[in-house]
Design a protein that fits this description.
Elements (H helix, E strand, L loop, with lengths): L5 E5 L2 E11 L24 E8 L7 E6 L5 E4 L16 E5 L10 E9 L3 E8 L4 E5 L5 E9 L1 E3 L2 E9 L5 E9 L2 E10 L4 E5 L12 E19 L9 E5 L7 E7 L6 E9 L5 E7 L4 E6 L4 E5 H4 L7 E8 L6 E9 L4 E5 L5 E11 L4 E9 L5 E10 L5 E13 L4 E5 L10 E21 L10 E5 L1 E2 L3
Antiparallel strand pairs: 1-2, 2-7, 3-6, 3-8, 4-5, 4-7, 8-9, 10-16, 11-12, 12-15, 12-16, 13-14, 13-16, 16-17, 18-23, 19-22, 19-24, 20-21, 20-23, 24-25, 26-31, 26-33, 27-30, 27-31, 28-29, 28-31, 31-32
C-alpha cells in the first residue's frame, strides 16, 4: 500500500500534485538487517505507490496524470496511450492506480506528479516497502509558506525527512528554517524547477541535537507542497516505524483529533501542537472523558502530549479538542501519531473544520490482508446519527454498492465512533473502494488501514488519512 497528493483548484479544473510517486517493480525484497537511505529520504525500499482519485462532482470526471523527475522533466503521461488512460470516473466513485502495474512508468525512481480532472476530486496516496508504509491525503492549499511541527535528528531513535515539490509553473527558490522554540538554529536552501522536487533529510545535521524536538518553516518564491516523514533509524528498536503527514499552510484556533487512544487494543497516540502564530499562545487540550491539559507555546514552538500517560487505559476510543484560549488566541497546528508495540505506526493531521457529507477514497475488507476503519467525531452542538454507504469492487472485480446504513444512532458532541469495514458483513472479502459518510451535524473522520491477519510483528503496515468534506 502507498501514499501522497496535493490539491489545487483552478476554476473547473482540479489539479492534484503527487508529492511522492514511486515507480518500482512489483517484487519487494524481504527485510534486510541493514537498510540504505533511499531517494525518498527514509531507509529501506524499493517503495511502491498507489493512489485513488475520488470524484466529488455531479458529472463524470475526466482525469489524467503526469509524473515528473526531480528536475521537472516529464517521465510519464497517462494520456499518451489508450492503455494507460484513466477511465471516466462516475460521481461518488473512484479510480485506483497502482504505479508498478502501469506500463511505461519508469522503475526505480522517486517521482512527483500532477493529476488534472474536469470535476472536483480528492485523492489519497499510499506507499510502502516490505517493512513499512504510510498514507496521506492531498493538500488542499499549496502555499509559499509551510509549517512542520516535528523535526528530529535521532530523537530517541527517530529522524525526519522532508519531501518538497514545486507547485508553481516556474522556477522556485526558498529555504527550510529550523527552530528550537523561537530560536532559529539552522537552514537549508531550496532550488526547484517547475514541477521539480527534492528530499531534505535531517539525519546528521550538526545544528540539530539528538533527543531534542524542533520545528521548521518552509518558504518559497512560489507555491510549494511537502510531506513530512518520521522514521525509526537503522539499528534502533523502532527501525521499521514510518509516520507521514502533509506540511501545513496555516493553523486554526481550534483543532480536533477524532482518534485518541490509550492502550486501545495495544494502540497509543501522541498529539503534537505547534503555535503558528506571531505571539505566545495559551493552549488547552480537552479530551472526551473530561480530562484537560493546559500549557503555553511561544511563537513557532511545539509541545507533545503523550495521551497514553494522560488517559486511563481503555478499549474504547477517545477524542480531543485543542484550542488556543484567552484574549489573543493564536493559530495552532496539530498532528497525531498512532503506534503499537508491534511496530505499527502512522500519523494524521488534526482537523480544523468538518461537514455533513464526507468521503473516504480508500476503504478495504480483506484486500490482500488489509482492512480499514473510519472513526468520526461529532463537532456539532447536538447528537447526530452517522450513515455510511460504499462503492467499489470485490475480489473477482465485480462492482459492489452498499446502500446508506446507520452506523451510529446518537453520537454525542465531541465524542467519536469507530466504524469497521474489516468486520462489516455487508462487504465481501476482497473489497476495495470508497465510503460516503453523512450526518445531521458537522463531523470529521479519520481512516485507518492496516493488515488485519497474519501480519509480521516487525512490519509497519498501518496507514491513516483524513476523510474529505464533500462540498457539492
Amino acid at each position: 500500500m502507498q501514499k501522497g497528493v496535493v490539491l489545487i483548484s483552478r476554476s473547473s479544473l482540479t489539479k492534484l500534485l503527487a508529492v511522492v510517486a514511486l515507480a518500482v517493480s512489483l517484487a519487494l525484497p524481504a527485510a534486510q538487517p541493514v537498510r540504505a537511505q533511499g531517494d525518498l529520504g527514509v531507509p529501506g525500499g524499493p517503495f511502491s505507490t498507489a493512489f485513488r482519485i475520488q470524484n466529488l462532482g455531479s458529472a463524470n470526471a475526466s482525469c489524467a496524470y503526469k509524473l515528473y523527475s526531480a528536475t521537472g522533466t516529464t517521465a510519464f503521461d497517462s494520456s499518451a496511450s489508450s492503455s494507460t488512460a484513466v477511465p471516466p470516473i462516475l460521481p461518488n466513485e473512484s479510480a485506483y492506480i497502482f504505479t508498478p502495474s502501469v506500463s511505461g512508468i519508469p522503475s526505480g525512481q522517486t517521482l512527483a506528479g500532477v493529476v488534472e480532472c474536469d470535476q472536483p476530486v480528492a485523492a489519497v496516496v499510499n506507499y510502502s516497502d516490505a517493512d513499512s508504509g504510510d498514507t496521506y491525503v492531498g493538500v488542499s492549499s499549496p502555499a509559499t509558506t509551510l509549517y512542520v511541527p516535528s523535526i528530529y535528528n535521532d530523537y530517541y531513535g527517530f529522524y525526519t525527512s522532508l519531501r518538497i515539490m514545486n507547485a508553481s509553473s516556474s522556477a522556485n527558490t526558498g529555504s527550510v528554517a529550523y527552530f528550537q522554540g523561537t530560536t532559529q538554529v539552522g537552514s537549508d536552501s531550496i532550488s526547484l524547477a517547475a514541477n521539480g522536487s527534492t528530499t531534505i533529510n535531517q539525519s546528521g545535521k550538526s545544528f540539530l541535537n539528538s533527543n531534542t524536538g524542533y520545528s521548521a518553516r518552509i518558504t518559497g518564491s512560489g507555491n510549494l507542497a511537502a510531506i513530512v516523514q518520521i522514521y525509526g533509524g537503522v539499528g534502533t528498536g523502532v527501525a521499521d516505524q514510518l509516520y507521514a503527514f502533509s506540511a501545513f499552510s496555516g493553523g486554526a484556533t481550534k483543532v480536533y483529533a477524532p482518534v485518541v487512544m490509550s492502550n486501545y487494543y495495544g494502540y497509543n497516540t501522541a498529539i503534537t501542537v505547534q503555535n503558528a502564530g506571531s505571539t505566545t499562545a495559551n493552549v488547552t487540550a480537552t479530551y472526551s472523558n473530561g480530562t484537560t491539559r493546559s500549557f503555553t507555546l511561544a511563537s513557532g514552538a511545539s509541545n507533545t502530549l503523550l495521551d497514553f500517560q494522560i488517559l486511563p487505559a481503555a478499549e474504547s476510543l477517545y477524542s480531543a479538542v485543542i484550542e488556543s484560549t484567552g484574549s489573543n488566541p493564536q493559530p495552532l497546528i496539530v498532528t497525531v501519531n498512532e503506534s503499537n508495540s508491534a511496530k505499527y505506526a502512522t500519523t494524521y493531521e488534526g482537523l480544523t473544520s468538518g461537514g455533513q457529507n464526507l468521503v473516504a477514497p480508500i476503504v478495504m475488507k480483506e484486500y490482500f490482508g488489509f482492512g480499514s476503519s473510519v472513526t468520526c467525531q461529532n463537532i456539532g452542538t447536538s447528537a447526530t446519527s452517522v450513515t455510511v454507504s460504499y462503492t467499489g469492487t470485490g475480489s473477482n472485480g465485480q462492482a459492489v454498492s452498499v446502500a446508506p446504513t446507520v452506523k451510529a444512532s446518537s453520537l454525542q458532541p465531541n465524542t467519536s465512533v469507530g466504524i469497521f469495514q474489516f468486520n462489516d458483513s455487508s462487504l465481501p472479502n476482497g473489497f476495495i473502494g470508497s465510503a460516503t459518510i453523512t450526518a445531521s451535524q458537522n463531523i470529521i473522520c479519520v481512516v485507518n488501514q492496516s493488515i488485519v491477519n497474519n501480519a509480521p510483528a516487525a512490519q509497519d503496515q498501518l496507514y491513516a488519512y483524513n476523510a474529505i468534506v464533500k462540498t457539492e
